[in-house]
Amino acid sequence: MKKEILIVEDCTLTKTWLTEQFYSTDYEVNSVDLGEDCISYIQELKPSLILLDISMPGISGLGLLDYIRSIHDMTELPVTIITSSDDKEILTDVLSAGANDYFIKPIDPVILMAKINLQIQFNSIQFNSIQFNSIQFNSIQFNSINITPTI
């Protein structure tokens, strides 16, 4: 099954460039223009990763990130911020708000792919680990019930 990346970007040029970077990959890429559209999208579907522009009309990227984190934690749905600012305070704010990573425009395509691949692999490993631990815990509980002596 293909992993899905959702691009949330109001600039058509940036959105097109980002989409083109994934043409020859195993990722399915979808995009929306506004934060409100992203909210509707993730209520129906859950992408493997969101690339989120921080400066958008309507709901800001930071406001949208707060909303996403209210329903999905960092291990459930990674969010990588896209910004043209290298202001340390802004970057610190987005990381503190729950962004998994960030890119400063212009984005190097090699670094883009390396970081996205790494983030999706990392989250897949975490998800599998959580499932394994849950199964293991349930198995231990079940076994302890079965081996309890009856009097």
Topology:
Blueprint (H helix, E strand, L loop, with lengths): L2 E6 L3 H10 L5 E6 L2 H10 L4 E5 L7 H11 L7 E5 L4 H9 L4 E4 L4 H38 L5
Parallel strand pairs: 1-2, 1-3, 3-4, 4-5
Helix pairs in contact: 2-3
Q: How is this structure best described in words?
A:
This protein is α/β, with parallel strands linked by helices and 151 residues long. It has a single domain, classed as Response regulator (Rossmann fold). Helices cover 52% and strands 17% of the residues. A five-stranded parallel beta sheet has the order 2-1-3-4-5, sandwiched between helices. Strand 3, helix 3 and strand 4 form a beta-alpha-beta unit. Helix 2 packs parallel to helix 3. The longest helix has 38 residues. It is globular, with a radius of gyration of 19 Å.
Low-confidence runs of at least 5 consecutive residues: none
**Can you count the beta strands?**
5
Number of helices: 5
Radius of gyration: 19 Å
Strand order of the largest sheet: 2-1-3-4-5
Q: Averaging pLDDT over every residue, what do you get?
A: 88
CATH topology-level name:
Rossmann fold
Q: CATH H level: which superfamily? A: Response regulator
Q: Could you give the order of the helices and strands?
A: EHEHEHEHEH
| CATH class placement | Alpha Beta
Coarse shape? globular
Percent of residues in β-strands: 15-25%
Query: Which percent bin holds the helix content?
Result: 40-55%
